[in-house]
Amino acid sequence: MNEDRIKGQWKQLSGKLKAHWGKLTDDDVQTVEGNAEYLAGKLQERYGLAKEEAQKEVGKFLDSL
Question: What's the pTM?
Fold first, then answer.
């Protein structure tokens, strides 16, 4: 799923995102607004992941949609 589609369907995806990564706050999800790079940064912050690992996790999540 490309980033343009993610931004277009953000309201629907935000619920799945919070279910998948429970440590993300509503503010985190609202601020991300479909930006995969920013989401990876938030995962680094909340889960203590390395940058590459966070990017892989975001990629896996997006591929599963």
Answer: 0.81
